[in-house]
Amino acid sequence: MTSRLQERLLAIMDRKNHWAWEHLTGPGLTRDQLVVHFRHEYRVYVRDFPVLLARVLGQSPPAAVRSALAENLFEEQTGKLSLGVSHPELFLEMIDGLGIPRAAIEDESLPLEPEPTGCWAAKPRSLRRS
User: Fold this and answer.
1) How far apart are CA 70 and CA 67, in angstroms?
2) Given a cut of 90, is residue 47 above it in pLDDT?
3) pTM value?
4) Under 8 Å CB-to-CB from 44, ≥6 apart: which residues?
């Protein structure tokens, strides 16, 4: 990826305004609320991101894009370009470090709260401020 393109992408990411950011970086969240958030992040995004990359790669984008996707997929799934641990496993190691049982994140029998749509009322009840 060119340095100019990378800088443009990072600038876009800097403008992101995730509805939960103030909750995750400020005081007031309970451990149970964090578990709900991390369960959702893991089961909806982190765990299956390598599969998403593989599906995009399977659509046969231009050669340069294929190379970047293949490298990213390899790193996400194996971690062998950095720490030697897959990114989903790194996420679970973070969960271990927080003292949250992995089962609280991985257990498919535990429900996921609906994805918020941006309005306050659509946020998971456990993350709403009174």
Assistant:
1) 5
2) yes
3) 0.69
4) 112, 115
